[in-house]
Amino acid sequence: xxxxxxxxxxxxxxxxxxxxxxxxxxxxxxxxxxxxxxxxxxxxxxxxxxxxxxxxxxxxxxxxxxxxxxxxxxxxxxxxxxxxxxxxxxxxxxxxxxxxxxxxxxxxxxxxxxxxxxxxxxxxxxxxxxxxxxxxxxxxxxxxxxxxxxxxxxxxxxxxxxxxxxxxxxxxxxxxxxxxxxxxxxxxxxxxxxxxxxxxxxxxxxxxxxxxxxxxxxxxxxxxxxxxxxxxxxxxxxxxxxxxxxxxxxxxxxxxxxxxxxxxxxxxxxxxxxxxxxxxxxxxxxxxxxxxxxxxxxxxxxxxxxxxxxxxxxxxxxxxxxxxxxxxxxxxxxxxxxxxxxxxxxxxxxxxxxxxxxxxxxxxxxxxxxxxxxxxxxxxxxxxxxxxxxxxxxxxxxxxxxx
Length: 403
Ligand SMILES: C[S@@+](CC[C@H](N)C(=O)[O-])C[C@H]1O[C@@H](n2cnc3c(N)ncnc32)[C@H](O)[C@@H]1O
Known about the structure:
Blueprint: H1 2-19, H2 31-50, H3 55-73, H4 77-86, H5 94-99, H6 101-119, E1 129-130, H7 135-148, E2 157-161, H8 167-176, E3 181-186, H9 189-201, E4 208-212, E5 225-231, H10 240-250, E6 251-264, H11 273-286, H12 294-303, E7 307-313, E8 320-322, H13 343-358, H14 366-386, E9 389-398
The structure holds S-adenosylmethionine.
S-adenosylmethionine binds near residues 191, 231 and 237.
């Protein structure tokens, strides 16, 4: 990148010198145009170098990893994204998506897991920020807060329901200390492999593991866990009862289940076309078969046997200074990761990916995956700003002692 900035800068200076007749370069008939293009390249490359996270280098690394995953799993990105998107065309109903939900969710996470880890980190969830808090501190606080409802102690076994690549699981393992054992379940094999590699790298594999399975039919015996939590995951189930009943079955009597739920709020207006359209973008961009209200989710929790001991929409918490959807809000600051969310950043990114696909530097279909993630971002920001939807309604249930 330094090299590109230097070459661009020298070319810009050379073309400008020619224009002012300080030097004679016969080939340069359009000196100003050359100077402008070279100057932009130089500034762009210099900005990339100056930016803390060097987005261009990281993007190239992401694309090459995406390519190697595509060849090792023999999953064709182009047909996967087409098949996925077809489930959301206008002719498809919630029922059809619900029937296809497990393959829908699995193919969604095959496509996006790498992008999530690259853009967000190892914990795939939102958090609002409090005064003086960094993004990663807020993410961890959000996890520890949920965990605090389980009251885990010496020798306890805890389940993470829909665990991603295990970011929350390993953070919580460190927080809880050496005597708590954690198991995560996810439907996606790539997440299991990546997560177990992380557990090993972090020296936690003796008490942390990820297993592949559908959380609506868990591969665990009855009453084996002392607590369970779930972060922004149960919304992927067509009916919450299917996952809550499995959590209930695998918990010991008297144990707690705490969850951050994605739900529609009372502010959503089904007669407002924009509200409906944006919610559809959230569903399509986030791999959700259908959506529910908190009342429906609480009812599902009670129906399977839990006592609901607490619930609150944390998006309304008064002490926050940065809302949960802020990382997805667009900005014109070219050094910010969020530049990609304005119309210019979106267009440049999408076309750049298409060019990279043409030269086999990115798997065919990558630009369409990016477009789908942009849908999610637009929908979530709209719904977050208007509070028509929340990603952090905390719900805590207890399995009765006499169950
Ligand atoms: C938004 S991610 C959240 C991941 C994790 N809780 C975190 O915060 O990093 C949702 C997770 O739910 C998992 N998931 C969705 N449906 C599932 C199912 N039927 N069975 C198991 N896992 C599922 C996905 O594979 C993914 O890991």
